[in-house]
Amino acid sequence: MAQYRLTVTTGSFPTAETFHSIFLTLVGSRGESNKYPLENEGKGFLPGTVNHYQLSTDEDLGEILLIRLHKERYSFFPEDSWYCTSVSVECPGHRTYTFPCYRWMEAYCTESFRDGTAKKITDDTDVLLELRCSELKCRQEIYRWKDFQPGFPRCININSMKNCDAKYSLVKQAPPRILTKYPNIQIKLKAFSEVQENWKSLQELQRAFSFTHTPISEYVSQHWKEDAFFGYQFLNGAHPSLIQKCNKIPTNFPVTEEMVAASLGKSTSLKDELMKGNIFIVDYKILDGIPGNVIKGSQQYIAAPLCLLFVTPEHQLIPIAIQLSQIPGPKSPIFLPSDSEWDWTLAKIWVRSADFHVHQLHSHALCTHFMGEVFSVSTIRQLPMCHPLYKLLVPHTQNNLQINIQARAVIIGAGGVFDRVVATGGPGLSLLIKRCLETLTYSSLCLPEDIQARGMESLPIYYFRDDGLEIWNALGSFVSSIVNFYYESDYSVQQDTELQAWVAEIFQEGVLGRASSGFPSLLHTCTELKKFLSMVLFTCSARHAAMHNGQIDFFSWLPNGPASMRNPPPITKGTATLGSILETLPEVNSTCALLSVLWVLNREPEDMKPLGAYPEQHFTEEEPQRCIADFQERLAKISSKIEDRNKTLELKYDYLNPKKVENSVSI
């Protein structure tokens, strides 16, 4: 007779428990056990509990290949879900097998789980090959692609979290994060939310803003009109990935030496500063021709400005010329710092409004949420749980599907936030995201290449670059150590058909098979695999944090990033006043609706998992666990370095502090 000691662990979060009957079967190389009841004295499997059992068999089962968990109805108890995190089996001779589960068992079902040792398809025996193939076949039948809009990256075929029944157990890996309203904020804003009038003054706006401000947004409200702060935001604000070095003034932006002489100083010229690499540009040409939304019967407006900036000898980045359209001419004046206070202020507000749209729909939604969803669904469909890359990727994909399903319903879907209060809502949203995807490149998502392509290698005070590269390199080192352990050669990469199917599906469903994107459709070498994995992990963690974490700080003060403009861009100088600006900015109720959403999105989830935190132990071998420990140690050093730097700054940059970066696109 052989004795086996079993340890069964239930997830620690609320609703993870079950009061139904659980049975377990051991499957070994020499046979399998009977279905063994995991009796728990009627207490059920409560959240966070660790239960121990002994199972006896007539014969030694040999190497334990897998376990089966059976969930069956108990008495009159209502149907529920059980989240099992892991099962460990100590065999005769004291060898212990760990079986990572991390899956909901819904209704009454049987699930099979393999030992936690990671295996590529080329490493498996015939018996286990059949299991991994059936696992993927089942997932591919359940987790299907659909088009949300033509020209978008494709998404999961789930319209609502309410539709996530038993078959979508992998989507329900944790309690869903619902985009709900915060009652206290709503109550405070209620006095403003029904007011369909202009803001009467900046002081009146400050009253509503005070309910939702943060230390940084308070700073923004005090400094938003300053040129140096305007320029600073392109480096370290909510959207630091668009600015680029200007080597030549565009032909459609006819800035002359005379226009910028006062900004540059007497001892230099525009030509000289271009040669020195001190001139930068932000170009919103992707917005050109995007139709403005109609909100409550009123036409809204979108500009496609160009903004020229100069790095001063004091290392301040300041705007020196702004044109509010892509077509130069008498009705498209070039605004300058020497213009009247309100002309120049209004021109900068138009730039900030354009930045809001490109940030939200291109850099944030497309490049992190939508692409992250493609990575997530492809991982579920093409990599079995035992695959080393599934184990590497799954912590960086959790909750992405939940938040995107909700966002499509609440934020960008018909009747959502964008339709109600944002100028790029309605038909403009679909056209803009389609246009953005047509220009998206693999290189632009690889931070070192993106920094180099934009000519941003040496610009001082660019903390997004500095911190981002630190994290990119840490991720690259971590990924390399994992790949080196599981892939002994380039040939092993080429022979991994599951890996190749994963990459091919990302190419087909993410960038819609567009070869000009530079996205690979297959991988030939370990080096290519390491780069691709680094891009995926960085996109789902650090890139998302950089684009998400600063929203409430930089966009909650309305003039610093209006979601809509109610009057068209000025075609002459000398017409702007504070009154005309207030008439152009969104009215009171639209402002408050957006503030409510920004505040909800800004809240840190209770189950926040910072970068490098892996509470779910998918890897069970010693070497990958050592790799994880090294990665965590390196991230801790990066955090300390950032925190030390921030102590010396008037305005700290903490969005890429690994402690503040989530593992995945989860909010």
TrEMBL record:
This protein's UniProt keywords: Calcium, Cytoplasm, Dioxygenase, Iron, Lipid metabolism, Metal-binding, Oxidoreductase
Residues noted as binding Ca(2+) 2 in the record, renumbered to the chain: N40
Subcellular location(s) per record: Cytoplasm
Superkingdom of the source species: Eukaryota
Site entry (Essential for stabilizing binding to COTL1), positions: W104
Main location as per UniProt: cytoplasm
SUPFAM superfamilies the record matches: Lipase/lipooxygenase domain (PLAT/LH2 domain), Lipoxigenase
Domain PLAT: 2-119
Cofactor binding description: Binds 1 Fe cation per subunit.
Cofactor dependence: Fe cation
One GO CC annotation: cytoplasm
Binding site for Fe cation: H364, H369, H544, I667
SMART domains per record: LH2
Biological or metabolic pathway of the protein: Lipid metabolism
UniProt record similarity statement: Belongs to the lipoxygenase family.
Protein name per the record: Hydroperoxide isomerase ALOXE3-like
